[in-house]
């Protein structure tokens, strides 16, 4: 499936995005580890949707604006992007950090999300559940923790020269730290606000997620009114990258239903 | 005019025997069950004895600093140690190198404590400001991406609190107070000297030069120190002045013994303790996200800055991270640093790592009796006023 890279001027920002496919738009929000990348699951989705996969502000080729200080700023940014693209209401699919943004977007602007897919989404804290501290661990160790099968993390290894990788991952981690250093990777206000989400919601979680345990998926499903939780067996934090066929078989009927 | 400071980290030397194999770092995750308060009591008092003895030996100043939740330096509050020194010393400057102001949610507390110390000590305080090292942002939960903004803002608040009649409001991004009105006010006017110890980030160097705050390169190699000092001097020139030696400092672990070979040999385990154990930390502890700017990271990568724990003893010596030698060697080395880099403030970091007391005292006395006077003579510097040298100071 052909896709292209382009930069949009949205307000005071140059937003880089990848897009491909045809049909209804589907906004895909990338996890914190894989900006500016088009994976096979994008192709699968692009068979049925016009997939828009922007780099979050402060990730990949989208610069970090000075005003970006909280997770709500990301959600408001995406509402602005939707305005720019002329979308009043759209399907949104988010992975990990991107899932957290998607959840905030649906809670703050419930009328603008038609269908919501949360995959291993950050944003909630579950009492007693250990969370992997990605800020304290080496990048490669973090990548290894994302997968159940031992070698699957290699697909996320960056391909740029080593020095560029260090600079980009440091820049992206800095963006992440700005909004999620403390409280770490969650928003204390989100759980209550999720009552506001109106659209059908599919929560997908790897049963063997060592990065953010499935208990967090249960918490999402409990907090969002019209939601359904699907656990994927033998799968880690990122089902679209580890168990693509199972993932697509869950997501397509949901989005097309 | 050279100034000599005796600097103590107050390390916790009693690491678990399998530390090298089992522990990722002496910071953040090293369990405090390895701290023994009874031994700590003895060590604190020995360490303070050493600082007090340094005054008797003629050091111009004594230096303490702030570090949290680690074995490298057990001084979470340098102001407490400065207070202890303020009452037990009479002449020496007391340099706090420094208070890690972004780590504090209440910078006015720092303004108050330093003002208290200045009044208590009769105006002997030098107030260093630092950002704290990366590990401390993990340990204290402060966002490293806010580190620099908080540093500047806390600095502005503290200086205004010291110099402007209160009460006045302060509205920053990270700190907001409706009534800034610090009691007591500092004794030194307009405020105690502010020094900037640094690992060499570009922004800090420029900012320090703009404010004419002395820049102190801490535990860097000779080559890196040279680079950062040149940057600082360039930044000063861009502000229209030449940075004098009184504005340029170098802090490094120094060990003096009777001969070069003896010094190198005797210091080895302790210097290695400092770099291999005390400073052992993964990159994620050293540089948490946002702690440095992309520009500085680019500069460090280009300069080939390595983790201190990766350096061999020969490299530490050859590259000038540490200095060990006879009095003559140490004198010549520091003289060349003074001449080549324009350093006027030498900060002797003593009792490094797990160094036993007898070695620490021998070295500091050789430094005080044989190195400092020579350097003062060779550079035409005034000698510190005599005190009751050696009254309590004989080597135990």
Instruction: State the secondary-structure class of chain A.
Output: alpha/beta
Helix-strand topology string of chain B: EHHEHEHEHHEEEHEHEHHHHEHEH
- How would you name the CATH homologous superfamily of chain B? Luciferase-like domain
Q: Largest chain interface and its two residue counts?
A: A-B, 16 and 21 residues
The radius of gyration of chain A is 17 Å
- The name CATH uses for the topology of chain A is Rossmann fold
Termini separation of chain B comes to 32 Å
Helix content of chain B: 40-55%
Using the alpha-carbon principal axes, give the shape of chain A. globular
Report Rg of chain B. Answer: 20 Å
Report the span from N to C terminus of chain A.
23 Å
* Second rung of CATH, namely the architecture of chain A: 3-Layer(aba) Sandwich
- Count the E strands of chain A: 8
Q: What structural class results from the helix and strand content of chain B? A: alpha/beta
Give a quick summary of the entry.
With 257 residues, chain A is an alpha/beta fold.
Describe this protein's structure.
The complex is a heterodimer of chains A (257) and B (396). Chain A has 257 residues and is an alpha/beta fold. Chain A contains nine helices and eight strands. Chain A has an eight-stranded mixed sheet, sandwiched between helices. By secondary structure, chain B is of the alpha/beta class. Chain B has one domain (3-379): Luciferase-like domain (TIM Barrel, Alpha-Beta Barrel), CATH 3.20.20. In chain B, the strands form two sheets. In chain B, strands 1-2-3-4-7-8-9-11 form an eight-stranded parallel β-barrel, surrounded by eight helices. In chain B, α3 links the parallel β2 (61-64) and β3 (93-100). In chain B, α13 crosses α14 (357-379). Chain A binds chain B through residues 135-138, 163, 166-167, 170-171, 173-174, 176-178, 181-182, and chain B through 28, 137-138, 141-146, 282-285, 287-290, 294, 297-298, 301.
Pick out its properties.
heterodimer, A: 257 residues, alpha/beta, Rossmann fold, 8-stranded mixed beta sheet, 8 strands, B: 396 residues, TIM Barrel, two-stranded antiparallel sheet, 14 helices, 11 strands, 45% helix, 15% strand
